Amino acid sequence: MIPRYTRPDMAKIWSDENRFQKMLEVEILAAEAMSQKGIVPKSAIANIRKRAKINRERINEIELTVKHDVIAFLTQVGETIGPDARFLHLGLTSSDVLDTALSVQLKEACDLLLQDLNILAGTVKKLASKYKFTPMMGRSHGVHAEPITFGFKVASWYTEVLRAKTLIEQAREKIIYGKISGAVGT
What we know:
Elements: H1 8-13, H2 16-36, H3 42-51, H4 56-66, H5 69-81, H6 94-130, E1 135-140, E2 143-149, H7 150-175
Antiparallel strand pairs: 1-2
Helix pairs in contact: 2-3, 2-6, 4-5, 6-7
């Protein structure tokens, strides 16, 4: 993302720190599910939750050597956890972690856009109401046509904002799923 054009709250969603945090959440939740099945000791989960820390610089340093983003991530997180780190990534493939973390990031981005679209829709709706009797010249093919009201013109913007909101809501519903397909890959 180009920083000067990126809102801080959207930049945070797409930051390396947030991506790594989402990857860690996926890893921990998968280990917790395995713990519920008796595959991973509950004490290991408590230790992982307590000790797991992310260090972006260290991950980047490890990746230069191993040339694999998820291995670099797991190695760095493992350094902070200790022996119980062996229970992370159990039965997972890199794609399970990356794709699921990406889905969470996309959901967060959609949520942020929907918040703003709700504000925009409210503002545009008020504007349409405020100017419902204010005349203006309508245009067709780039030239003057019949008179309309500014409120009528703004109401068409309102319709488009609602349409965009609906499309983002539908997209959000399609992307909020994660996948755990197993350690063999896709």
